[in-house]
Amino acid sequence: MNNRRVYQATQRPAVVIKSIRKELSRTRKRWKRVDPSTPFQELLTAPRYQPMTVEVQGQPFGIADSLSFYWSYQEIFEKEIYRFDCRSDAPRIVDCGANYGLAALYFKSKFPNAHVRAVEADPEIFYLLSTNLAQRHFSDLELIHAAINTTGERVDFYCEGADSGRIYPLAQSSRSTQVDGIKLEALLDQPVHFLKMDIEGAEAECLCQTRTLENVEQMFVEYHSFEGEPQLLDEVLRKLKESGFRYYIQTQFCSPQPLVNPETYLEMDLQLNLFARRPRD
Q1: Where does 111-201 have alpha helices with state H?
Q2: pLDDT (tens digit, 9 = 90+) per residue, 158-178?
Q3: How far is CA 30 from CA 102, 249, 250, in A?
Q4: Backbone φ, ψ for residue 134 (5° rounding)
Q5: Cβ atoms 233, 241 nearer than 8 A
Q6: pLDDT tens digits for range 10-56
Q7: How many other C-beta atoms lie within 10 A of the C-beta of residue 21?
Q8: Residues 185-199: pLDDT tens digits?
Q9: Phi and psi of 26, rounded to 5°?
Q10: What Cα–Cα distance (Å) separates residue 81 from each residue in 107, 115, 221, 250?
Q11: What does 187-226 look like in DSSP terms, one character per residue?
Q12: For the chain, which terminal residue's Cβ has fewer other Cβ atoms within 10 angstroms, N or C?
């Protein structure tokens, strides 16, 4: 399978970001860990925030940013961080923070009969998500343009131009817009085999307030901690434990020496990957 081919941009104008110096420093450190044989390496040196079309699974796939797509592809298709076992050949999957649709492609490649409910808040990213998945003619696919929050009401959304837009104020935001809101429990109104949450800081409050986690068998949550704000990791873990889950934790971003040299990324000082599942019989 050839996934390296990159087409010239035919999408929307580039989104200008005010400051990416800290992100570039972080990226240089990650480059040292790149396997020379990994797909899409040309994107590591491509200009950022330039809409373009790449080829994924033999078909065109629109993206808004080269670098964030590269790392997402590595995590989802190479490392398979969303991999889960399921007794059903048609699992129900809820993808919160669906971005361009890479996770949905991964789920459909593993479970062709899966019902995937994908939610994305950023209007321009949702456009790419819809376009990317529509041309693949998947069945049992539901796309929802909304921001997951605790009230379900319309909310300001701060666009970043790639995969880091959020409902919390963002200094590097290119623009803000109002989008419809939806509560997490409304997405978990029936049994869900796998829940994926990557919603840039809204995950903690939404998880802790939902009353329908009993419908979820397994989940992945990217936890975000904002510098200077109360940390909610203990509340998230307590909610998972009280809901009957066993959890596992991996570090996604943290300063190597946080006590003497704290670092932030988009005003966040900690990002963790949380995996949770119910004990099996």
Answers
A1: 123-134, 184-187
A2: 999 999 999 988 887 778 999
A3: 21, 20, 16
A4: -60, -40
A5: no
A6: 334 333 333 434 444 454 444 445 566 689 999 999 999 999 999 99
A7: 7
A8: 999 999 999 999 999
A9: -65, -40
A10: 11, 19, 11, 11
A11: HTSS-EEEEEE--TT-HHHHHHH-S-GGGEEEEEEEEEEE
A12: C
Dihedral, CA atoms, 65, 98, 180, 237, nearest 10 degrees?
A: -120
pTM: 0.87
Q: Where are the alpha helices (DSSP H) in 32-122?
A: 66-73, 102-110
* DSSP 8-state assignment for residue 44: G
- Joined tokens for residue 179: 């989008």
d(CA 61, CA 121): 19
Q: Which ranges in the chain belong to alpha helices (H)?
A: 21-31, 66-73, 102-110, 123-134, 184-187, 203-209, 233-242
* Cα–Cα dist 187/146, whole Å: 11
Closest among 198, 274, 268 to 236, alpha carbons compared: 274
CB-count burial class (<10 Å; 0-12, 13-18, 19+) for 116: buried
Distance CA 257, CA 259 (A): 6
β-strands 92-96, 59-63: how paired?
unpaired
Query: Residues near 36 by Cβ (< 8 Å), separated by ≥ 6?
Result: none
Whether 120 and 98 have beta carbons less than 8 Å apart is answered as: yes
Amino acid 98 reads A
Question: What letter represents residue 83's amino acid?
Answer: R
What's the CA gap between 117 and 178, in Å, rounded?
Answer: 22
Q: Which 3 state secondary structure label does DSSP give 53?
A: strand
Distance CA 70, CA 87 (A): 31
- Helix/strand/coil percent split, the chain, to 5: 25, 30, 45
